[in-house]
Specification:
With 147 residues, the chain is an alpha+beta fold. It is built from four helices and five strands. The protein has a five-stranded antiparallel beta sheet with strand order 1-2-3-5-4. The protein is globular.
Length: 147
């Protein structure tokens, strides 16, 4: 299992780099060429969402992207440092069900997740005290080869 980890400061200009790295690693992992645009778009949405959350909550830690090549699948996890619902609201940067410090942000967040869900069949969104993670995976060519 090969893993590539990318960490970048929460600046919008770094999202493009994350998309390019994800597409290159996905291609090397054996993801079908026809799906690479979906990988780029989904990673762009997930990274843009993480950057927006970091900036709106004043979080200075980097956004993380972990790209993992498994035997029959390629997965990407995009992590943010924003504590999720159920975290202590007194904690700086915490956001609850109300949508955080900016109510408009909740709508943009939901739209980004809807776009990702439309692009990726296998997607999981997790949120906890340490931040949130969007995990996406695609089958590789090895998974689609039949004997």
């Amino acid at each position: 299992m090969a893993t590539v980890e990318l960490r970048f400061s929460a600046q919008p200009e770094h999202v493009r780099t994350a998309r390019l790295v994800a597409a290159a690693v996905a291609r090397r992992a054996g993801v079908d060429e026809a799906v690479l645009d979906e990988v780029r778009l989904a990673v762009g949405e997930a990274c843009s969402r993480a950057v927006g959350l970091h900036r709106s909550h004043g979080i200075t830690e980097p956004v993380s992207v972990v790209l993992t090549e498994e035997e029959k699948a390629f997965s990407i996890e995009v992590g943010d440092g924003v504590p999720g619902p159920g975290s202590d609201p007194a904690t700086p940067g915490a956001h609850g069900a109300s949508g955080g410090p900016d109510e408009a942000e909740g709508g943009e967040d939901e739209m980004g997740l809807a776009v990702i869900s439309g692009l990726v069949d296998d997607v999981e969104v997790r949120s906890g005290a340490g931040g949130g993670t969007i995990r996406m995976s695609w089958p590789t060519a090895l998974a689609t080869v039949h004997p």
